[in-house]
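Researcher: Here's the sequence for the chain we discussed earlier.
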Amino acid sequence: MGEHEAPTRPHGPRRLVRWYLDHRPTRWSAGVPVIALCAGLLFSVSGTTARGGDLRSEVTTLPALIRERTHDNAVKARRAEELRTTVTALTNERSPGNQEIDRISRDTANAAPKAGFEEVRGPSVSVSLDDAPLDADQIPEGFDVDDVVVHQQDVQGVVNALWRGGAEAMMIQDQRIISTSAVRCVGNTLILQGRVYSPPFVITAIGDRDALQASLDEDPTVSIYREYVDQIGLGYEVTSSDETTLPAYAGQSQLAHARAAR
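Model: Thanks. This is the structure I predict for it:
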């Protein structure tokens, strides 16, 4: 028999038994086809599920997911502003001389600054709120970890005080605030119109600076916050500027019904 020739099956009962004992399949050799079949099936399912992509997502933590969604929202907001500008230009181009459209356009233009849909300039007051620079083992006795971070009611208190002080326009961080804007905090992060921010939180209002400052000084919620500033070091800083530009609101207004305040 050649070196690479397959063994031939012998003749005769005793020789046949001996040949079988020498060449009978083992459990391992019998299981190899089954293992190969399972491996092929696994690869096939993985390929179909991934559809050519990576099954292991790069976004594995909540903060990373939040950052990704915040970036997506910012991109979509810029795109929405571009489309809004295009729609306005096309409307003006395709509908010249229409008195009804002209009237609506004038009304819209007059209401835009107060509604937040137009850039505004003027003297301003800015308030910065920040967490206390303390580690857990540095928190004074009688206080806990919730006391050393800025909360939703703190931001909302400053916002309300500035509105009461006659603010004509307002911005939190880099976003213009309108009547339907909601301030929400999760932990020590601020969620505003689909974007997430970490402290310090900066609120900027355009208006009479003396009136705005007086309203901050007299507001009870802000006063309570300032007590914590003195006791545990929460951040509170007020600055003013002769002229500040606040951008127009870049999102979509969802207000369907409204009633004039009396």
